[in-house]
Design brief:
Blueprint lengths: L10 H5 L8 E5 L4 H12 L3 E6 L2 H14 L4 E6 L5 H14 L5 E4 L17 H23 L3 E6 L23 H22 L5 E7 L2 E2 L9 H11 L6 E2 L1 H4 L1 H8 L10 E3 L2 E2 L19 H15 L6
Parallel strand pairs: 1-2, 1-4, 2-3, 4-5, 5-6, 6-9, 7-8
Antiparallel strand pairs: 9-10
Helix pairs in contact: 4-5, 5-6, 6-10
Bound molecules: NADP nicotinamide-adenine-dinucleotide phosphate (NAP).
Length: 316
């Protein structure tokens, strides 16, 4: 069965007819951009939504905005800084206590192309925030996800994964020169590979994991961009015409990944435009998934590296 949705589909269209009453959905990056829209539409479908963010004021404003639009919605907030593993552990513990079951985990938060900076634990900021923080958060929430089976984990990757593979010798740019696009690419490849390894480890437990490229959307994600960056990005990715999406269209693939009947029981996939992506090809340089982001051996190697870096092993 092929999906009826595509590039321009919106969140409201893909969730039409879906009810999530009695289900719990957890959304990271709930204070801005795609996270706010994702939380809004999941709440509108009846889910109890927990929005996470690092900035209490910005997060509260987003949650209040959803409440004002949807007075009957169940939306709460939790503070978590993904660039601080102690904060991730504390948030996961609070959530596990509050939610015996989590049916949807949407790992949406991210930073892009920032100047060289490090997380509280010393990791390069993009790898640490986009991947390692979410890796730890997800693994700590697995008991609640398995208890809710069937449950879904959705990790926001990006077409930017094509800009960089994992450098297993120096993932934190300690010995190589920092390149903000290579670092973003590495972190987004990690989001895709994490979905592959996680899905494999959860096989038979009723929980799937998929990766999503939302499209190109004008959000605060571009806060570090300089005028030359769009050209650099086009040249490096080979995509000369960037077709920007609205925020509701940008969040649509995440919502499709979280709720589509077509994806029931299916994981380890990379999704874009509300479809399962094709392998990258010359005919479609702006889209598709690169082989290095689906490589099972690399996914397993990244899992082991991630456990080592967060200092904890997870039996799945
Ligand atoms: N927009 C695009 O064109 C595009 C394209 C491809 C992929 N993506 C991916 O889509 C996801 C959402 O992006 P967006 O466009 O919605 O960006 P955005 O508007 O900048 O929102 C990013 C969210 O992540 C949060 N965040 C950043 N660092 C964090 C940290 N250390 N701890 C906790 N939360 C943190 C931000 O919180 P604050 O409000 O506190 O900053 C914000 O809520 C990202 O993973 C991004 O890589 C976006």
């Amino acid at each position: 069965m092929a999906t009826e949705f595509g590039h321009a589909s919106t969140t409201d269209e893909v969730i039409s007819g879906v009810r999530l009453d009695g289900k719990t959905a957890v959304v990271t990056g709930g204070s801005a951009g795609l996270g706010v829209e994702s939380g809004r539409v999941l709440a509108a479908a009846g889910a109890n939504v927990v929005m996470l963010g690092r900035d209490a004021g910005r997060l509260a404003a987003a949650v209040e905005g959803i409440g004002a639009e949807l007075p009957a919605a169940s939306v709460s907030m939790e503070i978590m800084d993904l660039a601080d593993l102690a904060s991730v552990r504390a948030a996961a513990e609070r959530l596990r206590e509050a939610c015996a079951q989590i049916h949807i985990l949407l790992n949406n938060a991210g930073v892009m192309a920032c100047p060289l900076a490090r997380t509280k634990d010393g990791f390069e900021l993009q790898f640490g925030t986009n991947h390692l923080g979410h890796f730890l958060f997800t693994c700590l929430l697995l008991p609640s996800l398995v208890a809710a089976a069937p449950a879904r984990i959705v990790n926001l990757s990006s077409a930017g994964h094509k800009l960089g593979d994992i450098d297993f010798d120096d993932p934190n740019f300690e010995r190589r020169e920092y390149d903000k696009w290579l670092a973003y690419g590495q972190s987004k490849t990690a989001n895709a590979l994490f979905s592959v390894a996680l899905n494999e480890r959860l096989a038979g437990q009723g929980v799937t994991a998929n990766a999503v490229h939302p499209g190109m959307i004008m959000t605060e994600l571009g806060r570090h961009l300089e005028p030359a960056d769009i050209e650099i990005l086009q040249a490096r990715s080979g995509a000369m015409d960037i077709a920007f999406k609205s925020v509701p269209a940008g969040a649509a693939t995440s919502i499709w990944a979280c709720t589509s009947a077509e994806l029931e029981g299916r994981g380890g996939l990379y999704l874009e435009d509300c479809h399962i992506a094709e392998p990258v090809s010359e005919a479609n340089p702006a889209g598709g998934v690169a082989a290095h982001a689906q490589d099972r051996a690399a996914a397993e190697r990244l899992w082991e590296l991630s456990e080592q870096l967060v200092g904890e092993r997870f039996a799945t």
